[in-house]
Write a structure and sequence with these properties.
Strand content: under 5%
Largest sheet: none
Radius of gyration: 19 Å
Shape: elongated
Mean pLDDT: 85
Length: 99
């Protein structure tokens, strides 16, 4: 549970950081719009209902690619962690039965 919460927290910080950069660049006039765009782009390469201004659209595409990679990496980490925990649990369960 701690690893999952930590990973969600890290992704949240990354999404908010991109939104803050969009605001600094002047790509969006309202933070809510920048945050929405950042969240949809990071998590799904965007829906197309909110568009990045033409001058910054490559930066938005970079966020989308980074989001897909980092979400996939996080999924792989969690699967690996759960596999290791299952193996540890299995070792503990069979340890007492061997004697």
């Amino acid at each position: 549970l701690g690893a999952t919460v930590g990973i969600i927290g890290i992704h949240t910080v990354e999404i908010w950081a991109y939104a803050a950069v969009y605001m600094q660049l002047g790509a969006f006039s309202h933070f809510e719009e920048a945050l929405y765009y950042s969240t949809e782009t990071y998590a799904s390469i965007g829906y197309g209902d909110v568009l990045m201004p033409h001058d910054w659209r490559i930066f938005g595409a970079i966020e989308g690619a980074a989001g897909v990679i980092l979400l996939g990496w996080s999924t792989a980490y969690l699967v690996s962690l759960l596999t290791q925990l299952k193996l540890i649990n299995h070792d503990w369960m069979t340890l007492g039965k061997e004697s």
